[in-house]
Amino acid sequence: MQNPEAKKLVSIKNLTLTFNAGKKNEKTALEDVSFDIYEGETFGLVGESGSGKTTLGRTVLKLYDPASGSIEFDGHDINKMKKKELADFRSKAQMIFQDPQASLNGRLTVSNILGEGLDEAGFTKNKEERRKKILELLHMVGLNEDHASRYPHEFSGGQKQRIGIARALAVQPKFVIADEPISALDVSVQAQVVNLLAKLQKEQGLTYLFIAHDLAMVKYLSDRIGVLHWGKLVELGTADQVYNHPLHPYTKSLLSAVPVPDPVKEKAHHVKSYDPSFEKDGQERHMVEMETGHFVLATDEEAAKYKADQK
Q1: Which segments within the chain are labelled E, that is strand?
Q2: Which tens digit of pLDDT belongs to each residue from 29-54?
Q3: Which intervals hold domain ABC transporter (predicted)?
Q4: Which of 6, 172, 182, 190 is 20 to 30 A away from residue 165, measured at CA?
């Protein structure tokens, strides 16, 4: 669980991102998104495909420039960072990508894939030190020395993702964005990778932004969860609050789609449909705190209704 005395590591305030601004195909990918991530916690971000999860993660790493709002990392606004500050930020914040095959250079051996980051950050002084560090990274993620000389196509999906995790951790980051790191893997391998992420977090004191569309997996790994829909944060709370006491109808719809591991119960399982039309009624909605730490995007009237429905 999150340490109540932990400090804010990432602070996102009123973040809005628009693609192709001023053109016919202008698209608002993120709209007025605000939340904090504390040191040592795992913040889960969920939502269906196209909701803006990956876009938000990439914006936090300054791969996209927001139209408005701010992102602070360790008290510093990343949009105001100069070259040296940005280089330092890049080593402290890393990303694990969704598709391990596409994110690894097929022309490089694992040794060179991991060594690139070490060389760029100046973490090793000579070839022997570089080799030792690469082997440490491989052992850290459950691979061995023989794997260093192989190419990505020689590995299974789970092994490739382990290489991706090792690459992200090579420069000793404080903060890791895991962008659906298990969605391309078999179910049995998913559990292995999630357990590895949890183990590494404990050992190295990492902070995660865990992006996924599987609420059940996010609940297992996360301290707090944010639910994103059409680029807006519609609900935010602890894993228990969001999973066991959902407020927003979109969150309820997502949860109803989680399969039940019981054939009898699954047969009677009903998925709740979600009608998003009310979101376009022109009314202004804001994040309302329904109980300590549990927020929902709503008008005052909707918030009162959500609270009544909980009773």
Answers
A1: 8-19, 27-38, 42-46, 68-73, 76-77, 93-96, 175-179, 207-212, 224-229, 232-238, 286-291, 294-298
A2: 999 999 999 999 999 999 998 999 99
A3: 10-255
A4: 6
